[in-house]
Amino acid sequence: FSMKKIIMLMLLLATLVACSQPSERERANAREFLRNEISFANDQLTGMQMDYATTSNGCNFMNDNVYYYYTIDEDYINISDMIANEREIKRNLRSTLESVPETEALIQNLKKINGKIIYQYTGDITGKTAQFVLDF
Asked: Which residues partner with 49 through β-bridges?
């Protein structure tokens, strides 16, 4: 390759990267969408019994990340076991999110701002916390 071709390829690559990045307006719109969705979800989820051992404590949008907070009934589930099985739990959480059409907009907007979904489970007896971070 000649120096001229290398420079042209570098310029082309820089242009492609710049075009694939969301604009500041798109990122601002994504953040506003996420704030609204999380506010609505928080009203619905806080205090909800999710299953026999999990209670939702609500959710939050902070530092471009979506946080979901839960309390685990440790008479049924051991927090230490959750921590030990992090990889499998994260895979199951991701699979569930990606299979539900209603979460598609959430995921797409998180991608625009490089946001993550963070699930935090706290044991009702030990107070130990298991945290699972999903990035998209």
From this structure: 55
